[in-house]
Amino acid sequence: MALREHAAQLAEGNISDLFVADAQRPQRFSAEAAGIYLDYSKQRADDQALKLLLALAQQQDLADWIGRMFAGEAINQTENRAAFHVALRAPRDAVMRIGGRDVGAAVHGVLDRVCAFAEQVRSGSWLGAGGKAITDVVNIGIGGSDLGPRMVCRALAGHADGPRVHFVANVDGAQLTAVLHGLEPATTLFIVTSKMFTTLETMANAGAARRWLVAALGEGAVSRHFVAVSTSSKEVARFGIDAANMFEFWDWVGGRYSLWSAVGLSIAVTIGDARFRQMLAGAHAMDEHFRSAPLEKNLPVLMGLLAVWNCNCLGARSQVVAPYAQDLEFFVPWLQQLEMESNGKSVDRQGQAVDYATTPALWGDVGTNGQHAFFQMLHQGPAIHPVDFILPLRAAHALDEQQRMLIANCLAQSAALMLGKTPPQVRAELQGKGLQGAALEAALPPRVFSGNRPSNTLLLPQLDPHHLGALLALYEHRTFVQSVIWNINAFDQWGVELGKQLAQSVLVAMAGDDGVSLDPSTRTLLARSGQ
Ligand code: F6P
């Protein structure tokens, strides 16, 4: 209540006034960890807001929940499981216990196997059935078994020196067809990635890929061209992939938190063992910060609390993320699953319906592209959509002048959102152009910017494995912080199940079973589909 009242008071002023009142605001409203610098001085928040948010964190036992996650407790209570992705990037000598059992040795055993296999593929010592080295790797998986590795392989493309890597997720056969077009069965390796190994899309694509390979090279070739990443050795065997070609992970790794596990095999193949481990080390550095830094200096905590502030106190309708780096073009889809599959819930941990907003829609695109598309609405639409600007400073390419333009644009956008442009400013500008009278009055309103629109800016020295790892872990923990404040379980995803069940019913109806109960609209659409 006090938070909402304070937010209403702040809404009467401007973010830019807060800088007038406090010359040290840029320094005081910033924090740094694992090489990532967070500037939150352009949020519509002051010391009192932070004090109230930190009190809320205390009231919700945030420190205790962080401790419980790192202690491997079953914080995913609907599935009675730990959410222990931090164990996947802990160093070899760390003790990482789930219920008294140290999982460190198992984690590093699989990691070593993943890296060794990736090196075999990269060096050309893993041969296809015809004796040729692998030139193309195809990861078949969906959701967390796709978005994380796809995003990282793209983000670190500048560091890639392995075989070409491709991703197939959609059950729409157009995607697999397009990827297979131009690939040689004899030099292609498929990584079938699925936690459960029963996922409809993945099994359909893997089956079709297997038939494509067998048609060209025969059944005997499967063991040299198919490997699996899964928690289920039973389902992997049922599909017909050798146990020796399976890389394991565990039920305490959520799909959307899994790129650090064997799910990252395609990443290790693309960038190699050493860089893959640098990425894990970057994430671990952020984990250590999250676990040990005081809440008021803790990046994921600050970002999580400010997200709650924007959503629940300022009434923001959505969260925009704008990475100013073309190589982060798949960052937003990855983050959408992370955030919205984790926190898109309306029942709390006690099973009660919540009477407050939980995760807002998260969307965005790389800068500067977004500026020429949806930024119009961010600047002048009636609703507030807070933005996270993400800016790696040093580029991997040699076009320095363009990097300066990119940086200038990123900084200008957050400034414009905050400052806006007042009617007197617009008037002076128009008068300077010779406009006056009715023409000036008509031209004025559409050129006014209200400003006072909040944003964070995250600076990374560059987009390398270490800083990417830290950035991803930062967002993972931010998501968790929000869930603690909202008292919801971030680690289950029951909301995806109903659609899966109904798709099965529709498939049964398509096969001619009239006994399937479908609503009249769906039955009519099915009839029109000609199936
Ligand atoms: O349907 C949602 C989901 O279960 C995600 O949570 C998961 O990342 C994705 O499907 C893929 O699941 P799997 O890795 O088991 O194929």
Topology:
Layout: H1 2-11, H2 15-21, H3 25-28, E1 30-33, E2 36-39, H4 47-59, H5 62-70, E3 97-98, E4 101-102, H6 104-123, E5 136-140, H7 147-155, E6 164-168, H8 173-180, E7 188-193, H9 200-217, H10 222-225, E8 226-230, H11 233-239, E9 246-248, H12 265-271, H13 273-292, H14 299-313, E10 318-323, H15 331-343, E11 361-364, H16 375-380, E12 387-394, H17 400-419, H18 423-432, H19 437-443, E13 455-462, H20 465-486, H21 497-510, H22 520-528
Helix pairs in contact: 1-4, 6-12, 7-12, 7-15, 12-13, 13-20, 14-20, 15-20
The chain binds 6-O-phosphono-beta-D-fructofuranose.
The site of 6-O-phosphono-beta-D-fructofuranose has 15 residues, from loops.
CATH fold label of the largest domain: Rossmann fold
Number of domains: 3
Largest sheet strand order: 1-2-13-12-10-11
Can you tell me the residue ranges where pLDDT is under 50 for at least 5 consecutive residues?
A: none
- Portion of residues in helices? 40-55%
**SS summary, helix count:** 22
- How large is the share of residues in beta strands? 5-15%
What CATH architecture label of the largest domain applies? 3-Layer(aba) Sandwich
Fourth-level CATH superfamily of the largest domain: Glucose-6-phosphate isomerase like protein, domain 1
CATH class of the largest domain: Alpha Beta
Mean pLDDT: 96
Outline the biggest β-sheet: 6 strands, mixed
What is the molecular shape? globular
Structural class given helices, strands, pairing?
alpha/beta
Question: What does this 3D model show about the protein?
Answer:
The protein is an alpha/beta fold. It folds into 3 domains: 2-73 and 291-494, Rossmann fold (3-Layer(aba) Sandwich); 85-276, Glucose-6-phosphate isomerase like protein, domain 1 (Rossmann fold); 496-528, no CATH class. 47% of the residues lie in helices and 12% in strands. It has 22 helices and 13 strands. The strands form 3 sheets. The protein has a 6-stranded mixed beta sheet with strand order 1-2-13-12-10-11, sandwiched between helices. Helix 6 (104-123) crosses helix 12. The mean pLDDT is 96. The structure holds 6-O-phosphono-beta-D-fructofuranose (F6P). The site of 6-O-phosphono-beta-D-fructofuranose has 15 residues, from loops.
